Amino acid sequence: MTNERKMNSNSKQEQLEQFRVNDQGKKMTTNQGLKVSEDEFSLKAGERGPTLMEDFHFREKMTHFDHERIPERIVHARGFAAHGEFQVYESMKEFTKAKFLQDPTVKTPVFVRFSTVAGSRGSAETVRDVRGFSTKFYTEEGNYDLVGNNIPVFFIQDAIKFPDLIHAVKPEPHNEMPQAASAHDTFWDFVANNQESAHMIMWHLSDRAIPRSFRMMEGFGVHTFRFVNDQGKAHFVKLHWKPVLGVHSLVWDEAQKIAGKDPDFHRRDLWESIEMGNFPEYELGVQLLAEEDEFKFDFDILDPTKIWPEEDVPVKIIGKMTLNRNVDNVFAETEQVAFHPGHVVPGIDFSNDPLLQGRLFSYTDTQLIRLGGPNFHELPINRPVCPFHNNQRDGYSRQTINVGQVSYHNNSLAANTPSPATEAEGGYVHYQEKIDGRKVRARSESFKDHFSQATMFWNSMSQPEKEHIIQAFNFELGKVKSKLVQQQVVDMFANVNLELARTVAVAIGAVPPNAGGSDITKSSPAVSQENTKKLPNTRKVGIIIGDDFNGAEVMTILAALQAEGVQPEIVSEKLGKLKALDGTELEVNHTFLTVDPVLFDAIYAVGGTAESKKFYKDAAYFIHEAFNHYKPIGATHEGKQWLEMEKMTNSPGVVVGEDVNEFVSAFVEAIAAHRHWSRQIV
């Protein structure tokens, strides 16, 4: 790797360093650098007199405060982000000339923002919703943005309908309710009357819409793009992020309770994981399709409501991204970052997906209003690591100080510079696709199948996943007031699966449809979360423990759990230290009042010989909540007696034992499984 490339790989962090300001220990100044002698009282005409207009410090301070907020994003307003780096595993030269995908020794800086879609910036994070998963690669050829979601398809096929979709899913305008929720009339009225949404709705009502964490969800580019190599040969490509920890979700009751107990649950999880050194990791995968194979499937590969089944077009894993640094300032970085699917580098190009084509306009347009003009690229978080030169000038918030008299092309006064670069010099050249057609407002016939992949998704689900989808339908449609809309939706989804539609109809009081059904038998096991990686790493376990516990055994178990990557946190009646019978002390992390069982992945009940009746009552609540959410439960000592009293000891995922090593092994295995769906709820 050349010295220049080494420099570029680190330059984003170095570039941001010059904008970091640590005010600690410094004297206060105005924004012009004038030292301030007083910051508590405004300048007045006498101690009890009126404030004077000449108080420039007051006016500067108040004016800045009045303008501290920028318009929140219309969608993806509730987000959180982190810095990291990406390395390709092997050169992709055969398929693309993008330089950051060539050299496995190069680390490309990245910035990733995760988000919900429908809610406002202050909404809860565990709502049922699509999650944004957008990555900015700071490459030596310029910024490349992979602007994606955690679901590989979308509600609509053409971008012209995007305002309608968002108007429908946002709080209803007459009463501004409900917040961050799709369980209301206008959204489901849109679904029933825009049936291209069928496939997306199946994903939206699945466990994918309530992820356990940002660290445990997939990311998808959604659209069909092109890779183009240095010979000009193109392949269609879809891009995937595969979390190293696997894909895992919450259960609906748990997600709702977390929204009240900790509305910052997902951002807290990401922040704390990075601070602890448990860096989130995602592998980049690509599905590649030769241009000559464009029409060999029973769906249109440009249709954004369709996936390319991984069994038909395998995902090739080509690199890994590691998020290893939290932001210094959420507003300056997370809120001001500007993503755009049109930010590409040589070797990456577009397809004619009509949803993608519309996004290529919309993203620039929205940044102009959010970030105050055309210079949003000059904000520190958006600046590329490579230099940029053009004849664009002035405008709001211009930070570049351009020298010289020339700001136009062509010119002779500056030897016609800056000048365009040839393709050999790294200039971006659009792929020369042949286009031959009439100007029409129409949808391709190949886009008119709305139900086959929705049925394939249903066929791919395990029985617990199917039950969760049914429950989600029942909840969402149960919140809809219009009987007409309810019936329309039930009739619509009879085209996906007749038994599904009938079951939902009975639950919500609609008329069960008699016609419909599908003869599609194909499935795609890759879309089921039952087939994901199952690891114990970074799982949080609440340890319920009191004074006079068995010190030696408990400390051995806690150490063994930590050695497996599990994160134990001590829960008891009060903060401070707990003392074991042998004098061992444990620091309490939470009380029963300050934490809740829904915030843990598993519960380990230990107890102690000095517990009160209230202690047992609080512990029983934790155990029952975890049990009813199908979570792993471990118990030793007095905790074992509690489970026996609750008649839980013979249930799947409940681990009790006398031998320490056997207990740890079985409990870790239960934690890795994530949920135990065969459990009968008591």
From TrEMBL:
Keywords, ordered alphabetically: Heme, Hydrogen peroxide, Iron, Metal-binding, Oxidoreductase, Peroxidase
Domain Catalase core: residue ranges: 29-417
Region described as Disordered: 1-30
The keyword Metal-binding is assigned to this record: yes
SMART domains assigned to the protein according to its UniProt record, in alphabetical order: Catalase
Numbered residues of crosslink 3'-histidyl-3-tyrosine (His-Tyr): H340-Y363
Broad class of enzyme this protein falls into: oxidoreductase
One Pfam short name: Catalase-rel
Entry's transmembrane regions: none
Catalytic activity: 2 H2O2 = O2 + 2 H2O
EC number(s) from the headed UniProt entry: 1.11.1.6
One example GO MF annotation: metal ion binding
Entry keyword Membrane: no
Binding site for heme: R73, R113, F162, R359, Y363, R370
GO biological process, one term: response to oxidative stress
CC per GO annotation: cytosol
Active site: H76, N149
Cofactor: heme
Top-rank taxon: Bacteria
PANTHER family: CATALASE (PTHR42821), CATALASE-B (PTHR42821:SF1)
Function recorded in the entry: Decomposes hydrogen peroxide into water and oxygen; serves to protect cells from the toxic effects of hydrogen peroxide.
Family, as annotated: Belongs to the catalase family. HPII subfamily.
Name assigned to this protein: Catalase
